[in-house]
Every structure is written in structure tokens, then in C-alpha cells.
Amino acid sequence: MPPRAIRLLLGCFAVVLATFGTVWILRRTLDAHEATYQGKSVDEWRELLASHEPGVSNRASIEITSQVIPALIGNMLHDTADSRMSSALADALNSLPGPTIVYLTADTRRANAAEGLGTLGLASPAAIAALMEVLRSRDLAVHASAAEALGKLPADPAQTVPVLLACLNDPQDPGRAEAVTTLASYGTAAKVAVPTLVRLLDDRSSKELMAAVRSTLKQLDPAAAARAGVH
Question: Are the C-beta atoms of residues 177 and 206 closer than 8 Å to each other?
Fold first, then answer.
């Protein structure tokens, strides 16, 4: 083969190799990875917290309180930056053969952070206050995760029930079913929500909401549920 042809062949091979290498790097960079805090995922921190070894559990509790929870709160409240270029690149790469790239938007990352606070389940006033702050805000993309997380934390119903009721009174709030389920976890301490739940029996916007309302109403006030035709 003439030297010129060899050089041309080698050049083509180099271009192909560089292209595949670039695509591989982009896939690795853009693809969603499980978020870590101090080098561990939320589930890993949860396992350490539940350890039967007091030393391990105590150290995990200290680290979670001082480092992990503040990081989750920061992500939940302030992670709003979405890159249009990254999103476009992910879409373009997904049109090529190979594994699908899962690109998490800022909305999803904030919701995941709220979910993480609930997964840890630690009695953290800062976490509870931050979740209520989200539910009072118009960051509707995070409301479902925040409402659900709030139900997993030892919060004071006197503080949280009014916030959850405000969510229920907004027909556009996507976290209403989760808010209702969290109200159920408070038992009689959430009985003030009964009139709102009775009114929501006429809401047919979501099967999940309808099921949660009926179940919670029967739990909080069986007599009111029976009068409303819920058996």
C-alpha cells in the first residue's frame, strides 16, 4: 500500500477513535450519577445511622447533622441551574447507538434532595424548616417530594398542618396527594384538616389524590367520612 494511502487510513482511524473517545467522555460526564455527600449516598448514610454499633451510629448522626443535611438543604433550595447545552448534548447523544443518557434537570435534583431529607429521617429542625419553606414557595416541582419527606420526620403538627392545608387549597399543587398522606401520619393532631378533606372528595383531578383523601378522612374522622358517604 502506498505511503500516502497508509497515512490517510491512519488519519481516518485517528478521527474515528477521537470521535468515539469524545462521545464516551460526554456520556460519562452528562449521565446522571447518584448524588453523594461526604463520599456516601443518602442510603449509605441511612444504613450507618441504623447501625447496631453505637459508635458507628453516633458518628454518622454527627456527620449527617453537620454536613449532609446542610448540603441537602442547599441543593433543595438553591440548585436551579440547568444547562441548555448539556440537555441538548444529552438529547443528541441519545439519538446515537449506545446506552441512554439520563440527564437530571434542576427540578429533579431539588426534588431528590428533598426526598433525601425524608430518607434520613433524622430529627433535624433545620430540615423541617427547609421543607416547610419549600412548601410555602411556588417551587411546585419539589412540593410532592417535600410533603412526603415531611411525613417521615418528627415534626410538630401544629406547625406543619397549616402549611400542608395551604397546599391542599391550591388546585395547581402537584403535591396534594402526598400532603394528604402526611396529614394521615399525624392522626388526630390533623383533625382540623377534615373539612378540607370532605371538600376534596369532589376533586376528580387525580386518582392518587382521591384515594389518599378517602383513606385519610376515614382515619382522622370515621363519623365525618360516613356522613360524606365514604365507607
Answer: yes
User: Which position has the grid cell 399543587?
Assistant: 173
Q: Where are the domains of the chain?
A: 156-231
pLDDT over threshold 60, residue 110? yes
Helix (H, G, I), strand (E, B) or coil at 37: strand
Cβ atoms of 32 and 104 within 8 Å: the answer is yes
pTM of the model: 0.79
Q: What is the CA radius of gyration of the chain?
A: 24
pLDDT tens string 50-89 = 999 999 999 999 999 999 999 999 999 999 887 565 555 5
* Spatial contact of 116 and 72, defined as CB atoms under 8 Å apart: yes
pLDDT of residue 41: 94
Q: What CA–CA distance (Å, rounded) separates 127 from 124? A: 5
